[in-house]
Amino acid sequence: MLAINHYIKNKYVQFFVGCFIVIGILHSLFNELVEKIPSFSPLLFPMLTIFLLVFHLFIASFMAMKYWCDRMRLYLMAFSFAFAGSALLMVGTLSSYPAWLDLYQFDVVNYNDAMIYFTFRHLLMAVLFIVSAVLFALRNRSLSRTFHVAVISGMFIFTALILILAWLYSSNSPLLTLDLVDNETRQYMLLWKKPTNITLIALWVISLATLMSITRVRNLFWIGGNFLCICYIATLAMLFLGGHAEDLSWYRARLFEAVATLLIIFVLLYDVFNLYRESHLKYQQSYQNSIRDPLTRLYNRSYFYDTLNHALRTVKPTEPVSVIVSDLDRFKRINDCYGHLQGDKVLQFVAQLLMDSVRPQDVAARIGGEEFVLLLTHTPPEAARQVAERIRLKLSSFDKASTDGQLPEPITISMGVFTATSKISAEECVGCADKAMYEAKETGRNRVVVFG
Fold it and tell me: Which of 213-222, 264-273, 341-350 tops mean pLDDT?
């Protein structure tokens, strides 16, 4: 049983089972579509080709942009050239339907040219997929700019060569010919049924094996790449079982390829979403670090003053803003007697007490060594005094035993309260609260004084 569970949990087994399920679902959906629509419109194949062309251009652009953002991912350029070349070859496929927009002239379709472009497209993509896997294996090496230029130039030349050969072997040149489909009977020729199709299937199998052995299906991106290889193997197998260019296998293959490519696009969009989410989280973390005190995680001085300035713009008697400036009594003695590490624990304990004592819309900040400040919006003087008094009494009730050693001895705090009801600067507002706090210090400490 353990061996079976281990086998089932193997990521390669899960990958192939997943591919089998997806392919089975697509095949079943197509069979249901055939039952409901026994014959397809001649517009279907070129329309599917257009959709596929757009999908491949999207993927090619996406890969190129990702490489532009991260030059360590040279392997993405192989994918970019593969899909860009594929899109251009599908333009050739559409040219095989010269009157596809004309509903009454579909008998002029050159199926042999369409199959030639199809063959060279698979040859191009399979080879570049293998190149991508090899480049992925080199991703952690220090590759020179010259190497990047040489590899990209080589891929460009190879893509251009495939495009030129496909164009020459089609009806555009009398010097080179390749008979894959009989345009009179629309039957597949022996050259397609035997060596060409089998060679392409073998090439995609090699591509799949190379990708799986090097990438080890390590993330969703490579799962998508390996899945596309299996899709192309299945597509070619469908055509191998078909008899002519207008039977259901031709439409099934193109519809299957379009859906499979659409799934790859969803994978890429999911990758973009993950990158955005990670970037957003890092931004939020960076922003929080920029506005918070690193020791206590209270807001820092600059954030407090920015918030206070904003609150004072709309202050009025019916919407007062209260500021409470507080300072720990005889905190220097804590550092001298117990050390700075213990002093840091005291500051963190007091900071947590302040955060727990105010509303979410209020601001608790550390503006000095042992000096803290609270910004209470829509809070009149008496309510602000009650908040300060509650904090003072709660802090003075703690000792070493009740705080698990965070406070080495009972700590007291002196607090000054000022409430702004009319236009006043932030500095003046804090200055008034600071004066009240010093009055509390001078009159015995461990008390709350309201300015005025």
Answer: 341-350
